[in-house]
Structures are given as structure tokens and as C-alpha cells.
Amino acid sequence: MDDTPTGSVTGTLYLVPVPLGPDEDPLRVLPPATVEATVGLDCFIAEHARSARAVLARLPMRRPLQEITIVELNRNTPEDRLPALLEPLLAGRDAGLLSEAGCPAIADPGAALVALAHRRGIRVVPLVGPSSLLLALMASGMNGQAFSFAGYVPVDAAERTERLRELERRSASTGETVLMIETPYRTQALFDAMLAALAPATRIGVAARLTMAGETTQSRTVAEWRALRPELERTPTVLSLQGERAGSPTRARPKGAREAAPRPAGARPPRPRRGR
């Protein structure tokens, strides 16, 4: 329910993307229109004030950093604190919402604030910038028409295996690509669990250090990954999977059967055999 006073003029909540890596230059990955909208703001809501200041310090802000207000919103922020964060906007002041990396409100506690802003009648404007999830999907070669984000899977080994197989079944049924993230120090464990739990024909994509130096994107079947057994870096990584759909040519082929070799152009098709 909107409890904003009738006739009041509210500020605009800008959703400001930031670089995916802490050492990345925001002017390299943010388009001019996003930079222009950000540098005029003097009020920000961020996961961590210190890292937000580090990003803003690399932008041509129109006010000194010491004159810019930064309040924190993270996973420890109680829900009853959210209305206070919107008070400057209800008073007519524009503000920017920053994530720790990439786009705010995606796998980010800022989503709850955006939802409340809509209920309070505050204008919300998303700005263009890097999204690790979309970049990973683009580079995966998997289905970009239907996809989902599963976030973090369970850490417990048995629960993790069950969840991965559930996601694989859903992907095989719907054809959707499933995207996942994990903290850098647990990425290898998740990747190894995927190789152990998933079917050989399921595809796994690994996208690491996106937009940063040393960026890598690879997409292979589980069988191909098992043969390689790579050691993944402890770095921000997006993992994706796509299960083999029931009825696909590969799935329908009998075990041990080979694909027919392509005929040369102009060759006559073989005569059909009579029933035995």
C-alpha cells in the first residue's frame, strides 16, 4: 500500500551498476549516460560504504566525497530499517543504489528496497552496466530464450547433489539454461560436485573474471570436463548448466550406435532394405 502523502514530489532512485572487479576502472565498463546520471548524485545506498567510496572516487563526481552521504544496506540490515533509507527520496532528494559488484538488486539485498520504493510511489530508474549473469549467459552458447538463476546451491554435499540433479531435470524438461554463483573459495567444490552428479551429455559453462584481465569463458559437456579435470581459480565465477532434452537426437540414439556419415553432394541415397 502506498503511504506517500498525496501530491508530494519524491526523488528518483537510480540503480547504479559498478564494475565486477574491485580494481576495475568504472569509466571503462560504464556507458557515458550511466556515468552522467551518477556523478550528479550526493546520496547513495550501498552494501559497504568503503567499497562504494572506492568506486565513486574513480568517477568525476560533482561534489567532494566528504560531502556525499552513503548509508549501508546489506544482508544484516533489518527489514524495519528500510523505510528510513527512503526518507531522503520521500523528501525529494535523488539517490543511487549500489551493489558490491555488477547490477544492484540482482542477487543483492537492494531488491527489497526497490520493492518498497515502488510501494511508496518513488520513481525507480535502472542504469546500464555490467551484469555477470547476462555476460555469462551470452558466452555460454546455451539457451538464451529461456533461463533461470538458481543463486547459491546448498553447501552440504548430499543436499547439493540433490539440488544439482533437480536443476538438471528441470533444464532437460524445459530447455532452460540454469545459472549459479558461488563464493570464490567454494567454486571448485561446486564444479567438482557438478561433474560427479550430472549426466555426461549435460553442458556446463564456466565464466570467470568477466570484464577483467584474464577473463575466461568455456562451455563443454560433463564428459568433456571430466576428461580435462581443470583446477578453477579462486575468482568470481558464474557456472551454468543445460540438461540434454528428452527426445534430442543424441539422447534418442541407441547406446553404441554411430551417426551416419554425411553423403557426398549429388550421391544417391541408399536403397531401403526389406524387412527381415
TrEMBL record:
GO terms for biological process: methylation; rRNA processing. One of its GO terms (molecular function) is methyltransferase activity. Residues 234-276 are annotated as: Disordered. The keyword rRNA processing applies. Keywords: Cytoplasm, Methyltransferase, rRNA processing, S-adenosyl-L-methionine, Transferase. It is an enzyme of class 2 (transferase). InterPro entries: 4pyrrol_Mease, 4pyrrol_Methylase_sf, 4pyrrole_Mease_sub1, 4pyrrole_Mease_sub2, rRNA_ssu_MeTfrase_I. SUPFAM superfamilies: Tetrapyrrole methylase (SSF53790). The keyword S-adenosyl-L-methionine applies. Its EC number is 2.1.1.198. Residues 39-223 form the Tetrapyrrole methylase domain. This is 16S rRNA (Cytidine1402-2'-O)-methyltransferase. It comes from Quisquiliibacterium transsilvanicum. The lineage of its organism: Bacteria, Pseudomonadati, Pseudomonadota, Betaproteobacteria, Burkholderiales.
